[in-house]
Amino acid sequence: MRMSRLLVRTLREAPADAEVASHRLLVRAGYIRRLASGVYTFLPLGLRVLHRIEAIVREELDAAGCQELLLPALHPIELWEQSGRAALFGSDALPAMTVDARGGTFVLGPTHEEVVTVTVGAEVDSYRQLPVTVYQIQVKFRDEARPRFGLLRTRELVMCDAYSFDTDKAAMQRSYRAVFDAYLRIFGRLGLEVTPVEADSGAIGGDVNHEFMVPSAVGEDRFVRCGACGYAANIEAARRRVEVPAGAPPVEDPGGSPVEHHTPDRAEIADVAAFFADQGVTTADLLKGLAVVDADGDPALLLLAGDREALLPAGWRLFDADDFARRPSMVKGYLGPGGQQLHGVRVVADEGVRRPGPWITGANRVGHHLSGVVLGRDFTVDAWGSYVAVEAGDACPRCGEPLELVRSVEAGHTFQLGYKYSAVMAGATFVDEAGGEQPFSMGCYGMGVSRLLAVLAEEHHDDAGLQWPPAVAPYRVYLAALGASRSPEVTEVADRLYGELAAEGIEVLYDDRDVSPGVKFNDADLIGLPDVVVVGAKGLARGTVEWRERRSGVERELPLDQVVAEISAA
RNA sequence: CGGGAAGUAGCGCAGCUUGGCAGCGCGCCUGCUUUGGGAGCAGGAGGCCGCGGGUUCAAAUCCCGCCUUCCCGACCA
Questions:
Q1: Are A37 and A147 within 8 A, CB to CB?
Q2: Which of A346, A421, A464, A524 could form a disulfide linkage to A117, CB 3.0–4.6 angstroms apart?
Q3: Tens of pLDDT along chain A (570 residues)?
Q4: In the structure, how far is the CA atom of residue A480 from the C1' atom of nucleotide B63, in angstroms?
Q5: Neighbours of A204 (CB within 10 A)
Q6: Any long-range contacts for A308-311 (C-beta under 8 Å, 24+ apart)?
Q7: Measured in angstroms, what separates residue A32's CA from nucleotide B9's C1'?
């Protein structure tokens, strides 16, 4: 491709709305343009990278026995009513967009479980046709609360999603493993360091699921991993090991009974700790109480150590103003466990609270706290569990070694769905060997292709521009002809190299523009093709051209007759 | 959804406090000169100052409402 013909404009300055490197550079180098918040155009260069990633995805999934199809992006809303997920539409869990059209309301597909289930269900009648795994590369729509970071979080995204259909759970798990391994190979070929982690399944559902995490400073996710045993989990799903003192908690009596303190306007943990600071008290000595409504809709007081962040189980929520009004034993800002059960409030506690104390807690009176509160003597716990976000240094739940916390981008997410959709969607059954009707056991597998483009740009760049790995670069070689307009020889040599490289199957972006050398060098760096070849009068006088590897900056002078051979061998 | 900031030429920004000809840099067009890391000179094109209303002789500037965008948080398949 000749630069003089390519639809691209590089920008000296980044648009003011670009915050992270991948966004800034992809816009500056002319790969993408923003049309609306979280909605991007892929210009020719950007689309070529997208296609390179897609080609790798297709190769690996095809090799794993998957079949590509293309599902509609526009779904009749009735399908979503059938699965029950239409009820989630207003929520944060499933921010779908709908359009009213002739024939009713359509959903702009945010994901495709419903559609694929009825599609495969209509084609498959017998166990003899199973297993089958299909996939598509498609645009999806999600009305993100907050699109950000360019292609990393968008409202319209290109995604690869695969779906497996099996006769039973064991077969489904084999299919799951096959796609899981294919995903690992895809990330490997893209040169991304990826860690599969245990995760929450969110609005997709199912039991076992894994996220594929790419460590990145701009990531919005965090996961923990154990260097000793390999345990890895999303921060939302991570657990830690808590060393519980052996035997029953000793009920020693430090002072006979708790002491009440007047602590006006000390409703925050940090403020309470400050109040008692002269006694050597830290936030870890405080019992943090959260008024919650559990998944059954019952009120409970959740206790955790004051230095930890709470992590509520799915379906739980914090008290709102009405809840507090209805439960006078729950005093916002001054919550304590003492006597809650007498008021019909269950006390649940994080494992980290399994020590006698003495604790400092709220007194269930506005402006008052208690010190010397002892577990077993002054309060009891109805249920223990894990209710705090795991932190770096916490003990691995498997082996007890310290956990590491890693910021990351979620590049893929796979789920063992089981019967969640096949049980409710019409026709999602097959006839088994015994002649009985059975629902499919399903799995689903998502990978953010357009997000991967951003992740790769994030991983591979420097101050001057992008540095594409050869596997995904839009072209392999940036061929810059310096001063071509005044040197017939430069033009002749560059034209010839362009043709010879193409004949070798090497894709070349040929900068034939009549612009100064500095512009060409800067655009070459910005666009970030793996190899830069410079044809200039200086080199030609010696019978050579320059070859520079963009990433390493290593430069070599090559005799004219060796250029094609050297580059195709590299 | 809560908090903050910003919308002026394709991009980056000044002008707004104190109302009075709409500006600068880059980019774009023409000509000449130049040519190994974003060239120089000269000339030129390009604007609903986000939108609507109000105040005023007069509004980019002051007031009200709305829209859009970005950041922090909440949330997130």
A1: yes
A2: A421
A3: 999 999 999 999 888 888 899 999 999 999 999 999 999 999 999 999 999 999 999 999 999 999 999 999 999 999 999 999 998 887 777 889 999 889 899 999 999 999 999 999 999 999 999 999 999 999 999 998 889 899 999 999 999 999 999 999 999 999 999 999 999 999 999 999 999 998 877 767 777 899 999 999 888 899 999 999 999 999 888 889 887 665 444 445 555 788 888 888 777 787 888 888 777 788 888 888 888 888 788 888 899 888 888 888 877 888 877 778 788 788 888 888 888 888 888 899 998 888 777 888 888 888 888 888 888 888 888 888 888 888 889 999 999 999 999 999 999 999 999 999 999 999 999 999 999 999 999 999 999 999 999 999 999 999 999 999 999 999 999 999 999 888 999 999 999 999 999 999 999 999 999 999 999 999 999 999 999 999 999 999 999 999 999 999 999 999 999 999 999 998
A4: 57
A5: 20
A6: A308/A350, A308/A352, A308/A388, A308/A389, A308/A391, A309/A388, A309/A389, A309/A391, A310/A387, A310/A388, A310/A389, A311/A236, A311/A386, A311/A387, A311/A388, A311/A389
A7: 22
The one-letter amino acid code at A23 reads H
A560 CB closer than 7 A to any strand B atom: no
Amino acid at A49: V
- Nearest nt to the A523 alpha carbon by C1': B38
Tell me which residues from 78 to 97 on chain A have a beta carbon below 7 angstroms from nucleic acid strand B.
Answer: 92-96
Whether nucleic acid strand B comes within 7 Å of the CB of A318, the answer is: no
Chain B nucleotides reached by a protein CB under 7 Å = 1, 11-13, 25-27, 34-39, 68-77
CA-wise closest residue to A360 among A439, A275, A302: A275
Task: Report the nucleotide nearest the CA of residue A541, measured to C1'.
Answer: B36
Q: CB of residue A202 closer than 7 A to nucleic acid strand B?
A: yes
Block residue for tokens 């994030």: A458
What are the backbone angles phi and psi of residue A171, rounded to the nearest 5°? -65, -40
Query: Nucleic chain B: which protein residues 28-67 of A have CB below 7 A from it?
Result: 28, 34, 36-38
* Full-model pTM: 0.92
Q: Under a CB-based contact definition with an 8 Å cutoff, are residues A332 and A267 in contact?
A: yes
User: Residue holding tokens 């609005």?
Assistant: A203
From CA A18, how far away is CA A27, in angstroms rounded?
8
Show the domains of chain A with their CATH numbers.
23-193+416-457 (3.30.930.10), 259-385 (3.90.960.10), 475-569 (3.40.50.800)
